[in-house]
């Protein structure tokens, strides 16, 4: 059973529907005391980093997620959920994250953009991936759906398993032991996204 963390900051229905298409049973979970009952966790997220951390704090989820990750079970952060896995973010001020992966979250540097490139980075783009079970059966580069204004900076390059180019190369997928993150939305990325979620189920 996979638990989808409900902290009022994500499109939970689309994530749950994607897993349902794969025949995988999931539950939307808002009680942090029950996280340990799940085989894997999904941490979705749409919105601002600081608001998300505040919602997690109000629901006593921060320590519960950290303890879950420490247990060795797999956790996958999607979009904002991936960014929350890091130490900190500069989105609308300085905010502390979950600290599960070393690094920070920063705004796209528009000075490196070509003319007519816009923020947020929105739409289909390629991800160039390293060999990892999350990407089994996918080509080295494949298109996924992105919507974001900030991106992560990994302190340890070994944690980077996927990169994408938008003005410049940025990290779009990470893995630190059992803690995984993906910046695009697999639940909105059709066949490629469903393949990634299927691979997560098999981990």
Q: Number of domains in the coordinates?
A: 1
CATH superfamily grouping: Class I glutamine amidotransferase (GATase) domain
Helical stretch tally: 5
CA(first)-CA(last) distance: 13 Å
Order of helices and strands: EHEEHHEHEEEEEEEEEH
Helical residue percent?
A: 10-25%
What is the third-level CATH name, the topology? Answer: Rossmann fold
Report the β-strand fraction as a percent range.
25-35%
The CATH architecture term is 3-Layer(aba) Sandwich
Task: Supply the CATH class.
Answer: Alpha Beta
Mean pLDDT: 96
Describe the structure.
With 203 residues, the protein is of the alpha/beta class. The protein has one domain: Rossmann fold. It is 23% helix and 34% strand. The chain contains five helices and 13 strands. The protein has a nine-stranded mixed sheet. A four-stranded mixed sheet has the order 6-5-7-10. α1 links the parallel β1 (2-5) and β2. The longest helix has 13 residues, at 190-202. The two termini are 13 Å apart.
Give the tags.
single chain, nine-stranded mixed beta sheet, 13 strands, 203 residues, Rossmann fold, 5 helices
Q: Quick summary of this structure?
A:
The protein has 203 residues and is an alpha/beta fold. It has helices spanning 12-21, 49-58, 62-70, 80-84, 190-202; strands spanning 2-5, 26-29, 40-43, 74-78, 86-89, 95-96, 101-107, 121-129, 141-148, 150-154, 160-165, 169-176, 179-182.
